[in-house]
Amino acid sequence: MTFIKNTPEAWQEHWQASGFSEPSIIQAKSFQPLKEKQNVLGISPTGSGKTLAYVLPLLLNVEKAQGSQLLILAPSQELAMQISQVVRDWASLLELKTQLLIGGANVSRQVEKLKKKPEILVGTPGRVLELIKAKKIKSHLLKTIVMDEVDQLFHEKEMNLTKQILTSAPTDFQLVFYSATADRVTEEAQKLAEQLTIIDVTDEDHSAGTVNHYYVNLSPRKKSAYLRSLSYTSDFRGMVFFNQVADLGAVEEKLVYEGLSVVSLASDQNKALRKLAIDQFSNKKAVMLLTTDIAARGLDFEAVPYVINTEVPLSEESYIHRAGRVGRMGASGTVITFVNDATKRDYQRILKKIGLTTQEIFLYEGTLHLTRKEKSLTEERAASSEKIKKVPTEQRKEKVKKRPKNSKNKGARRKTSQGQKE
């Protein structure tokens, strides 16, 4: 019997209506420890249902109309928005209120909504800390704090904000950490949470579908042209990642000018533009979502078959999370990375560390191929003809080099003729 059968009837109906069958491994193993208010570090592959793994048991511990008790922190606005939607879907069935708190949104409206005393808060560290300092969030009421994509929240910039939030909370509260790459921050998590229960299902969770990893040898100047050609291949729809926002903007400008249906999601956009890009890509009104690592974590788009890295990601974690946008919950997917002579070795090093295999892929005749294009008989004849045309020119060059010998003879003849005249 799965844990879902022991939850409220409204949840059981919603579970079935959502098309779920059996809980994923991380969901099944997380339920009881979290329900018992243990401090937990959860690690599982991307797309394995981590959000529901902590949301469902923690919501059952929340008491109605008792103030803000559950705080969920996320490293990006996009992830916070997506988590809040998931939480709202399940919390509303228990008559619990959820409030989203992110930067880029009107803070005055957020303050007004906090007056309604929502039981669950979902937000980014910067805005949450701002509201705590303004005494708009009653942090002493918090019973549980969740850090989704914890390794991101432990980066130097975010860690300072996160620690200030933890310091403002009561001394006795539950700490929960989740990420596909949380194993890299286990030591830091143990410093913050006593008696930490680690649930790592990485080796036993095989819910991900088949994901193939390929690379393309490509000059950086040809990125836009290649992406344009790729967009015309059959059933193409993909997330296209850049390391720098400036590069994203330059490519987007070219593709939009050429009439391609692309949207972009970047850190320099306001909340409205970000939401518009997510909605358009989600509703399949755009074939490409151009983005940076801002969209590599947590964002879940239905049936995305391709991830394109326009350059080699800067770390193994970045590659893992980008690639995790495909192959979710049994679906298959393809990851293609653009490399050149200067970056190919970095690409091979990253994949070796992760334990993935790769091979070169080629695009011609409107389709991706695993073999190079064979030259046609016409092309071979043209190449052969070109070689024949070049031979006389080369021979002429050789004759030019031999002229000094002739000039010596001419000089000798001139001397002889001069001698005869004398």
What does this structure look like?
- This protein has 422 residues and is of the alpha/beta class.
- It has two domains: 198 residues, P-loop containing nucleotide triphosphate hydrolases (Rossmann fold, 3-Layer(aba) Sandwich); 159 residues, 3-Layer(aba) Sandwich (Rossmann fold), CATH 3.40.50.300.
- It has 15 helices and 16 strands.
- The strands form three sheets. It has a seven-stranded parallel beta sheet, with helices on both faces. A seven-stranded parallel beta sheet has the order 10-11-9-12-13-8-14.
- Helix 5 links the parallel strand 3 and strand 4.
- Helix 3 packs across helix 4.
- The termini are far apart.
Which key phrases capture this entry?
422 residues; alpha/beta; Rossmann fold; 2 domains; seven-stranded parallel β-sheet; 15 helices; 16 strands; globular; disordered C terminus; P-loop_NTPase; RNA strand annealing activity; DEAD/DEAH box helicase; hydrolase activity; nucleotide-binding
Rounded to the nearest angstrom, the radius of gyration is 30 Å
Query: What distance separates the N and C termini?
Result: 124 Å
The number of distinct structural domains comes to: 2
Proper CATH architecture of the largest domain? 3-Layer(aba) Sandwich
Question: Going across the major beta sheet, what is the strand order?
Answer: 3-4-2-5-6-1-7
Helical fraction: 40-55%
Number of strands: 16
Structural class: alpha/beta
The largest sheet, given as strand count, sense and whether it forms a barrel, is:
7 strands, parallel
